[in-house]
Specification:
Elements lengths: L4 E6 L2 H17 L3 E4 L5 H11 L7 E4 L1 E3 L9 H8 L10 E2 L8 H11 L7 E4 L24 E4 L9 E4 L1 H5 L3 E6 L5 H9 L17 E7 L10
Parallel strand pairs: 1-10, 2-3, 2-6, 3-5, 6-9, 9-10
Antiparallel strand pairs: 4-8, 7-8
Helix pairs in contact: 1-2
Length: 230
């Protein structure tokens, strides 16, 4: 465990969602740049964050990854955040930089790479897939070796098999706070691999760590059940 990796085990999934919402609210109030994610866990955290702080007018919003689909597609991470967070706010963020998936993965990645020039993310919200992927960085994928881009196109390795755009490891690891939110017993094995075993490209989540800030891992008891947290 590195010095800037902190693991917090909540009593329940709802408590983990609330702790994540608190971090999102703090970053939004501070006028931070937040990189949001998709998946099953973020929507509840987004709902709680919007209820706790309806004024996000100082925040700037980005996405760690998204699928190459239109913004109204049900598979879109942008749409997920729009429905569970952005449309619930009284004062919307000063800037919302979505990934333009409708133009295709390669062109969307090129545009997003340019958007991210000079940007440092203050909070990058991450999940972990059952294969250990995070954002759209999949096990042993060539995108893991990219060091000269902030965003790249990526081939999906899990359903839905839709081309994607993802922030690269250098972009994510430059974040001031990397925030993993993972709940449920089904994630216990991959949580152990990501946070208690040697890092490597076989488990991309193990490679995402804030270089100069903090990596905070919020788990419920089920997701943490195979960690030694003593």
């Amino acid at each position: 465990m590195t010095a800037n990796l902190r693991i917090v085990v909540a009593d329940s999934a709802e408590d983990a969602f609330r702790a994540a919402a608190d971090e999102l609210v703090a970053a939004a109030r501070a006028g931070g740049a937040l990189a949001l994610s998709g998946g099953s866990a973020p929507p509840r955290a987004f709902e709680l964050a919007a209820a706790a702080e309806p004024d996000w007018s100082r925040a700037r919003i980005y996405w760690g990854d998204d699928r190459a689909v239109p913004p109204d597609d049900e598979r879109s991470n942008y749409r997920l955040a729009k429905d569970s967070l952005l449309e619930r706010l009284e004062h919307t963020p000063v800037a919302v930089h979505r990934i333009e998936g409708e133009v295709g993965a390669e062109e969307a990645a090129r545009r997003y790479d340019a958007v991210l020039a000079g940007v440092t993310i203050d909070l990058a919200l991450q999940g972990i897939g059952p294969d250990g992927h995070t954002a759209s960085l999949f096990p042993n994928a060539p995108e893991l070796a990219v060091g000269d881009r902030r965003a790249v196109a990526a081939e999906a390795r899990l359903e839905p098999f839709v081309p994607r755009v993802t922030m690269t490891l250098p972009m994510l690891n430059a974040s001031r706070l990397v925030l993993f939110l993972v709940v449920g017993e089904s994630k216990a094995d991959i949580v152990r691999r990501a946070f208690a075993e040697p890092p490597g490209p076989h488990t991309p989540a193990s490679l995402v760590r804030s270089r100069d800030g903090e990596t905070l891992v919020l788990l419920d008891r089920e997701a943490a059940s195979r960690l030694d947290t003593t």
